[in-house]
Design a protein that fits this description.
Length: 548
């Protein structure tokens, strides 16, 4: 059962258990006490568990302030300057980013603080082999190496080349030059590879949810793709398949409704009402259709996000033909492929015993986007369905408890398909298409063919967009492909304005939803500015990224 035991993981980060040992009450980025951490195996595990908490911080289910697809073309934030959400500042305000700070994407200081704590653990761990045994120490070091690799992954995807600190640095080591982007990605790969080679294939029941060998190899396929190490991506994906027993789910919707679905290689579970305060999040508040409020004790619903027409219109028909308003506009939401219904709540959708009404004047909106305040309803005519538990009511008073997916096998297959094509299209054409078509076949769509690498990459990009929609990949994929300027800059996002006719039929009109503004993504956004403090304090850091 591949689920994170949240009572061990997230509890450590928020410090809810005052009766537990000192280790429980700290985030490992806070302080480090050898006497507490290394007192016994249980204390070591509690300290290592604390690092799992960092996985939730950049997750859009747990953290509505970092629902990263809303920085891209496929999701729209209805909020301009409320809820501490910066989506529309990032997309519509050309003065938002400065040469001093990456602002929304800034992660330098906190991440290096964590790397320092991780390095302390890695420095000290070998000295306790005689106390705890080689296998115990090697396995915990593998988990910690995974988290250090994850930290460098976060840094490198934002800044490009970063300063690599692989040991516990003292004051004399303060000044250090940046490594190249390729060297930085190699550090990520080295750490995740060590983790994959030394983690167990499975854990016992008490440790269910900890990172397994399969999950680590799945993560390796992701970071190797960023590093453009195509052969390693393929190798890691194949090893993930081997150790996870080829876990592609036969049901797409079950992936998001069942944390124990075998496709979910690493998830974060949350507990409503645990020890009174609970370990929850606000996903329902920010994502549910506003018309749910009367059925949920009139609780405030912000409805802060909606899929755009750029995403919705990309879902194919059930037979694999392309959707078009000209051909299907009379009944646009009928006979679409299964991923559409698992991802989008649309006008006429059946939901919790009622019918979604996103037509003008309907229970669920539509509200025009304004460049101030928050709309508190859909501005696109759609709502995001993934990660909402239909019929759930606990969230009204205790917060949402739907699990978050950090890694699943569907992504791993898409990583492999892309890497095969990039490595050698002519040699790998058949396998690349077969891998891509496994994703399509799972939802009953016909296999695709491609006459060239360019044609295949168009198919691949389409599949990543619709398969992984709302899971935190689109914005980073566009940057990784160097397509964000083309896709985002100077463009407007769109939605649908639906008017109900007197005879009960509907009129559909495509509308722009960015308040008359054009979206912004400049070339320099591919590598954001280094922090001003680092530029001042590290004399060997070198020049800032281009354009800053």
């Amino acid at each position: 059962m591949k689920k994170v035991a949240s009572y061990l993981i997230l509890l450590l980060t928020v410090g809810l258990c005052g009766a537990c040992s000192d280790v429980l009450d700290i985030d490992p980025t806070d302080r480090y006490s050898p006497a507490s951490v290394w007192s016994d195996k249980d204390a070591v595990d509690k300290y290592v568990f604390g690092f799992y908490g960092m996985l939730k911080e950049k997750d859009g289910v747990y953290n509505a302030g970092f629902f990263s697809d809303a920085f891209s073309d496929i999701m729209k934030s209805s909020s301009w300057d409320q809820y501490n959400h910066s989506y529309n500042y990032v997309l519509l305000q050309d003065t938002y980013f400065t040469s001093d700070d990456a602002r929304t994407f800034a992660c330098w200081g906190d991440t290096y603080n964590r790397i320092f704590r991780l390095n302390i653990f890695l420095r000290d761990a070998p000295g306790y082999v005689s106390s705890f045994g080689q296998e115990f120490i090697t396995t915990r070091m593998a988990e910690v190496r995974f988290f250090r690799g994850y930290c460098y992954y976060l840094l490198t995807r934002v800044y490009g080349g970063v300063v690599l600190r692989k040991a516990v640095d003292g004051p004399a080591d303060n000044d250090k030059p940046r490594s190249t982007e390729a060297e930085s990605w190699q550090q990520v790969i080295d750490d995740i590879t060590y983790a994959a080679e030394n983690l167990p294939e499975s854990w016992d029941g008490a440790n269910s949810g900890r990172i397994t060998k399969a999950a680590a190899y799945g993560m390796l396929s992701r970071v190797a793709l960023y590093a453009k190490q195509w052969n390693l991506t393929v190798e890691a994906a194949d090893l993930c398949k081997q150790y996870a027993n080829d876990p592609l789910s036969t049901s797409y919707s079950d992936i998001f409704n069942n944390s124990a679905n075998p496709e979910n290689l690493l998830v974060l579970n949350f507990l409503p009402g645990y020890m009174e305060s609970g370990i929850t999040h606000d996903h329902d508040t920010y994502f549910r259709p506003v018309g749910d409020s009367p059925y949920h004790n009139k609780v405030s619903i912000k409805s802060a996000f909606g899929p755009t027409s750029e995403l919705v219109d990309s879902y194919e028909m059930a037979d694999g033909s392309e959707f078009s308003w000209e051909s299907h506009g009379d009944d646009p939401y009928a006979n679409r492929e299964p991923r559409f219904y698992a991802t989008v709540l649309y006008n006429g959708a059946k939901w919790e015993g009622r019918t979604i009404e996103t037509f003008v004047g309907g229970a669920d909106g539509l509200i025009e986007f304004q460049t101030s305040g928050a709309a508190n309803a859909s501005t696109t005519g759609y709502y995001f369905r993934k990660f909402l538990t239909e019929g759930e009511t606990t969230w009204e008073t205790k917060g949402s408890s739907h699990f978050a997916i950090f890694l699943r096998y569907g992504e791993v297959l898409l990583n492999k398909a892309e890497a095969l094509a990039e490595a050698d299209w002519n040699a790998n054409r058949t396998e690349a298409l077969a891998t891509l078509n496994r994703i399509r076949g799972r939802v009953g769509l016909p296999a695709r063919t491609a006459a060239s690498k360019e044609e295949f990459m168009e198919l691949l990009r389409h599949e990543r967009m619709v398969e992984l929609a709302g899971e935190g990949f689109r914005y980073w994929d566009l940057r990784r492909w160097r397509l964000a300027v083309e896709v985002i800059n100077g463009k407007e996002a769109h939605g649908v304005k639906i008017t109900k006719n007197p005879d009960g039929t509907f009129h559909y009109e495509q509308i722009a939803v960015d308040g008359g503004k054009k979206r912004i993504f400049y070339e320099r956004y591919y590598a954001f500015s280094l922090p001003l403090t680092e530029m001042k304090n590290n004399r060997l850091i070198g020049e800032n990224n281009p354009g800053w």
